[in-house]
Amino acid sequence: MTEALIVIDIQNDFCPGGALGVDGGDTLIPGVNARMADFGAVILTQDWHPAGHASFASSHPGAKPMDVFEMPYGPQILWPDHCVQGSRGARFHADLDTDRADMIIRKGYSPALDSYSAFFENDHQTPTGLHGYLRTRGINAVTLVGLALDFCVNFSAVDAARLGYDVRVETALCRGIDAHGSMDAALAGMRAAGATLI
Ligand code: VGL
Ligand code: ZN
Questions:
Q1: 97 φ, ψ to 5°?
Q2: Which are the contacts of 157, defined by CB distance < 8 A and separation ≥ 6?
Q3: Mutational pocket test of ligand 1: of 7, 79, 153, the residue with most ligand atoms within 8 Å of the beta carbon
Q4: Rounded distance from Cα 183 to ligand 1 centre (Å)
Q5: What residues pair up with 8 in beta bridges, in sequence order?
Q6: Is the CB of 9 under 6 A from ligand 1?
Q7: Can you tell me the distance from the alpha carbon of 85 to that of 11, in angstroms, rounded to the nearest whole number?
Q8: pTM score, whole prediction
Q9: Mind listing the pLDDT tens digit for each residue in 26-80?
């Protein structure tokens, strides 16, 4: 049975110096690269927003980054502009071993809808296609690493568990943002969904 390593959003904008830099976000890269050899499949995700994306504070007059905004699909934290399609910030960190990836899945490209999860956009209904890919490859166990632990890793882990995958999150190979108490909520939510945190 093939088990997949899913590497979430190790992109320049989520590393120190980036538009939404996560503390220590680059320090986990050697460990992530080393872990790739242990899996039968390696999948990378890439946050990939059009300019003027609805998750950007700059798209809402008067709003500031980290404000919470009511979207048609529920409350959403507004972010600084980040991971704009084709920009340097959207590229994978240069130290990440992208050659080992079988599949790169982009998300967050719908202008009016954010997508934290590698499986569904933030309406929790629009699929990214990753579930079909994993199913057709016979993969039913996934290990998640990457950025940010309390957003994209968290949403991906919860969705994967709901979809019936055996889910592990290697927290030593993740770093978080921690906005509005999101870290504690994420750890509790992932455990409640049935993910194993190691
Ligand atoms: C992410 C906030 C906005 C993430 C992506 O990768 O965790 N966080 N877009
Ligand atoms: Zn984003």
A1: -80, 90
A2: 144, 167, 169, 190, 193, 195
A3: 79
A4: 13
A5: 45, 146
A6: yes
A7: 12
A8: 0.97
A9: 999 999 999 999 999 999 999 999 999 999 999 999 999 999 999 898 899 999 9
3-state SS assignment for residue 127: strand
Q: How far is the CA of 1 from the centre of ligand 2 (A)?
A: 32
Pairing of strands 141-147, 166-175: parallel
For β-strands 3-8 and 196-197, DSSP reports them as: unpaired
What is the spatial distance between Cα 108 and Cα 99, in angstroms, rounded to a whole number? 23
pLDDT for residue 79: 97
Q: CA 92 → CA 31, 96, 109, 144, 193, distances in Å?
A: 16, 7, 16, 17, 29
How many A from CA of 41 to the centre of ligand 1? 23
Question: Ligand 1: which atom is nearest the Cα of residue 49?
Answer: 9
Q: Is 56 left (phi over 0), alpha (psi -120 to 50) or beta?
A: beta
Ligand 1 and 152: CB distance under 6 A: yes
CA atoms of 120 and 41, how far apart (whole Å) = 20
Q: How far apart are CA 62 and CA 135, in angstroms?
A: 44
| Pocket lining: 47 vs ligand 1, CB cutoff 6 Å | yes
Q: Which residues does the annotation mark as catalytic? A: 9, 107, 152
Tell me, in angstroms, the distance from the centre of ligand 1 to residue 92's CA.
14
